[in-house]
Every structure is written in C-alpha cells, then in structure tokens.
Amino acid sequence: MTKRLAxxxxxxxxxxxxxxxxxxxxxxxxxxxxxxxxRKAESATAQANVHVIVPSVEAxxxxxxxxxxxxxxxxxxxxxxxxxxxxxxxASLTDTDYCVSAKTxxxxxxxxxxxxxxxxxxxx
Length: 124
Fold this sequence. Notes:
Largest sheet: 4 strands, antiparallel
Strand content: 5-15%
Distance between the termini: 79 Å
Number of domains: 1
C-alpha cells in the first residue's frame, strides 16, 4: 500500500489554497484598476459633453441677447440635433450668465457662464 501512495501524484490542500489566494489577489488588483479607469472615462465623457453643448448655448445668447428662456429642447431643435436633453442640466439662467452641466455615471462637469472654465460639479 505504501508503494501505491508514493506513486500517486496530486496537489496538497495547502498548495491549492495558495493558488486560490494568488488568484484572489490578482482579481482584487484588476478590479481596483478597472474602477479607476471607469471613473476616468466617465469624467472625460461628462467634460466632453459640456464642450459639445456650449456652442449651442452661446449661439442662443447671440440670437436672443440673453440666456433667460433657454431650454435643452429648444437648443436641440434650433441649434444642434445631436443634443440629448436627458444628459444635461441647465440652471441659473440670467441675461449674462448660465450654468450647464453634464453627468455620466457618478461624474459631473459644469460651466457657469461664458467666461468660466469647465470644472467638476453639477449645476444647482
């Protein structure tokens, strides 16, 4: 019987547990990297979406002399058919200022007026 046991080959329980631990660690590292890349992609998309709508917002102001009364549906109809109103938010519309934001996933970017930069955040 000892000859038979010596001839059998296989993995011990400890070896299998070590392999499973290594696989678990590799999966954890991959998930952390994936989440980071996903957030960066959402952020870049939201920022690009704000860039897309700003020319339409400025064209509206040039045509009407004010930002008051501007709507996302009106911008889509009159200036840019590719605007998806569900992706944007307009707020704080006055004669000289506006706030437009875009949100993708958990990331939001906004522009608060014609001379402002696009910054992280959402319009109130």
